[in-house]
Write a structure and sequence with these properties.
Strand order of the largest sheet: 1-2
Helix content: over 70%
Largest sheet: 2 strands, antiparallel
Amino acid sequence: MMESLGYLTLSWFDPWLLLITGAGTLAGIYVGAIPGLSVTMAASILISFTFKWPVNEALALIAGVFVGGVYGGARTAILFNIPGAPSAIATALDGYPLAKRGEAGEAIGLTTVMSVLGGIIGILALAFFAPVISDFAIRFQSRDYLLLGMIGILLIGALSGDSFAKGVFAGGLGVLIGMVGLDPMTAEGRFTFGSITLMGGIPYIVAMIGFFGVAEALSQVHNLDLPALKQRVDRIIPRLSDIKRYFWLALRASGIGTVIGALPGTGGDIAALLAYDDAKRTTRNPDPPFGQGNKAGLVAPEAANNAAVGGAFVPMLTLGIPGDAVTAVIIGALFIHGLKPGPLLLTETPHLFWFTVGNLGLANLFLLIFGLTGIRVFTKIVECPRAILIPLIIVLSAVGAYAIQNNPAHIYWMLGFGVFGYVLKHYGFPVAPIILGVILGPMMDANYRRAMIGARNDVGTFLWDFVSNPISLVLSVAFVFLLLSQTPLWRRLVRRQRAT
């Protein structure tokens, strides 16, 4: 017990590990805040620099970048409606309206505190419930991940606009964009039209920068003559009343994030959407409404996506299965250092498990410190004249799109998506479902193929599997319920029930 406690607090009392974790967290915040610079990319690059380091130092740096990067995407989501990461898409739905009201400082402060709370809940779950959660996660089959992806599309379609049909159409359009490239099983081109450039597919970050960054910049061209909105940053630390008010919501969202994060291949983006939907359904008489600057719409997704970090480590450390893209990179780092994540890790190298738990806790402490600083500098950017800010956003977006693979074609794709996104927004189509569709499309495709192979390509067996397994049945019922809840008939039934 004492030995485990020693490893748990190792990075807290070792000056060098303390410095590395703090530097990684600070760098992660700003990497996550810049669209085009993903946490996965940063972690991959760090492996090439740290493969000769001692394993504790390498893991401390990567874990700090991971924790900071998941949070960092919220800043640009709130200030510019440009999520720095997919997990911040839900944050932008209410964060950007708050910034438009001049409350960016308070919004960022609240997301920081709730992100740290969510991160701590995820770490506690990792420490105490890792075997239980991993046993639950391993029961998910390919068809269950297919259902999760479909539920994610329906959720974002229902949450991001006034029209459910437009939201689902946008999600389907995103799935179509995500299918561009070589078929993963047959290596045949899909929607490539004979173009070699399209055979590599369209990175979701390029689409995200175009649909969010460039489209928003083009939309703001109509408001060049409006004065820049002065942001109130006199209160950054959130009010105690707000923390008390949203505390139980944050705990519930953290639970959702931990469980979803523990499901291999999902991650913080789905966790944030499910938590946002839970907040929207359980908040009575929201004032202001969700999507117009409701603070509950900030708390839920930010607590969930940061709790998903701890959840993602559960299958990685206990089963050797990555919870998301970043933990897949970390598995590679562990193998490079001669370690074998999996069922025997807790018995053969328990010190690694407890060191990871303690180091993630330390990274969240640094997140609280760094997250509540530098906000005034960030908010000053929003106060720049639009005639200066809009070209700057487009230039930075172009740099971010090019930096992904050093491919000039991505700049043209980004601009094309930006113009297309501007047209869609003009006609009331939300762009957030498109990005989620691009991300979830390949996952849904791969799991559909696996499920069909498991059913031996028999449609009857394939459909029977959805109702013969308890997890699949629950997810199928949730999918059907979510679909029916958006129909006019359901709304009439609800109004009639309330009237009686």
